[in-house]
């Protein structure tokens, strides 16, 4: 294939799994379009880090380039690559008139009723990046369409499946999923986020949640900077570019880019994200609550799940589990600290059933955090320091922040787990 002048519309990464090392590597991919409207994805063979992918994105995206020495890997269609075509659809129709082979381009009007592309070529450079000549100093091409940044409320109101969306959001809670990879940084997890458009919703507007779960597939490439921000105890504000909206969920997949920095090119007023200044509001538990969401709850203890209630001593230095000391002193031994522990910290697990005014005909079971358990039992202990179930019944609990583990209708039952939201702090 000879030299081919083309426009870089998007950059992203694909994870490649190495069976020998059991680790993931990233490969830079370019979504390009020529003057005739044909899309191609260029997959560079050189492996790179997620940081390098972001650097190339800021340098190359929106610029014209010349491709040479390309090899066609395959011609893929919409049915075979829904994720790729969801990104292509977000860039259609083009902003400038397309060239037609054999016809003049003079004064041709822009056509907005063009049919969606039905195929895309997957290309690879035989010796990259020598055969990709990007005009980094040139102006942004007229073909380039910056991501349209919208508020989460507007995104949730769109019912179309397999749509790409870009938005700013504040992360308030993170949760690992059941299926995880042993590879560091490639665990499947979920972030709960919010923004002003959700927090400022009108009272009684039950159709719009105050928080949204963002799911991460293992194909999503994350930079070290983003991963470090997600593992801190404080909340952070992240820019989500080209996340996939479909089947009622927002998913970060391949070609989704996360950044802590403001993108160079964007549209819409919502791109200037304003961080929340007050406490985050969660939806209260009610009949519309679904599994894998977060909510607030308050109620009265109507029962205790005694079969799952237990306590265990932990080290007062490293918080590790203890074992009986080999010495006859009656103390404990910590294998992590390799020391004897005289004053252990007692940890407890407790699940209670609550009567909730918001769900009077529903069985609500909550797994409590240590702080709430201590507060509940402190006012329920007997003279000898022991605890009896009858002293716990009737105690008021709340307002608690909870993760919804399960919801069943017949019988009506909700399983909750008390959680701690990320603290306000520096990004």
From TrEMBL:
Name under which the protein is recorded: Scaffold protein involved in DNA repair
BP GO annotations: double-strand break repair via homologous recombination; regulation of establishment of protein localization to chromosome
Stretches assigned to coiled coil: none
Listed InterPro entries: DNA_repair-scaffolding, DUF4503, NA-bd_OB-fold
One matching Pfam family: DUF4503
Any single Gene Ontology cellular-component annotation: nucleoplasm
Stretches that traverse the bilayer: none
Domain DUF4503: 33-421
Native source species: Pelusios castaneus (West African mud turtle)
Highest taxon, organism lineage: Eukaryota
């Amino acid at each position: 294939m000879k030299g081919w002048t083309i426009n870089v519309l998007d950059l992203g990464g694909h994870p490649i799994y190495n069976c020998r090392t059991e680790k993931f590597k990233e490969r830079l991919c370019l979504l390009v379009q020529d003057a005739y409207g044909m899309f191609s994805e260029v997959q560079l063979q050189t492996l790179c880090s997620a940081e390098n992918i972001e650097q190339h994105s800021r340098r190359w995206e929106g610029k014209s380039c010349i491709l040479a020495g390309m090899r066609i890997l395959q011609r893929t269609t919409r049915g075979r690559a829904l994720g790729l075509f969801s990104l292509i659809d977000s860039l259609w129709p083009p902003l400038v008139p397309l060239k037609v082979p054999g016809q003049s381009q003079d004064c041709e009007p822009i056509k907005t009723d063009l049919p969606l592309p039905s195929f895309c070529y997957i290309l690879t450079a035989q010796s990259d990046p020598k055969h990709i000549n990007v005009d980094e100093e040139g102006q942004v091409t007229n073909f380039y369409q910056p991501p349209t940044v919208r508020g989460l409320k507007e995104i949730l109101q769109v019912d179309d499946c397999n749509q790409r969306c870009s938005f700013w959001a504040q992360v308030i809670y993170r949760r690992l999923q059941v299926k995880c990879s042993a590879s560091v940084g490639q665990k499947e997890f979920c972030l709960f986020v919010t923004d002003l458009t959700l927090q400022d919703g009108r009272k009684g507007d039950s159709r719009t949640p105050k928080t949204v779960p963002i799911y991460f597939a293992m194909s999503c490439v994350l930079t070290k900077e983003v991963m470090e921000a997600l593992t801190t105890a404080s909340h952070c504000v992240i820019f989500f570019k080209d996340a996939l909206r479909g089947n009622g969920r927002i998913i970060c997949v391949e070609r989704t880019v996360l950044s802590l920095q403001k993108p160079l090119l964007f549209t819409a007023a919502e791109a200037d994200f304003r961080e929340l200044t007050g406490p985050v509001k969660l939806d209260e538990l009610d009949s519309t609550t679904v599994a894998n969401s977060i909510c607030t709850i308050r109620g009265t203890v109507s029962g205790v799940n005694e079969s799952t209630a237990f306590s265990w001593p932990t080290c007062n230095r490293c918080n590790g589990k203890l074992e009986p000391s080999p010495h006859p002193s009656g103390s404990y031994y910590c294998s992590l600290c390799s020391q004897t522990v005289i004053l252990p910290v007692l940890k407890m697990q407790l699940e209670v059933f609550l009567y909730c005014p918001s769900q009077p005909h529903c069985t609500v079971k909550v797994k409590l955090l240590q702080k709430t358990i201590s507060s509940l039992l402190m006012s329920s202990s007997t003279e000898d320091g022991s605890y009896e179930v009858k002293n716990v019944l009737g105690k008021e609990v709340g307002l608690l922040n909870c993760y919804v583990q399960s919801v069943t209708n017949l019988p009506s039952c909700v399983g909750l787990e008390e959680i701690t939201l990320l603290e306000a702090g520096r990004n």
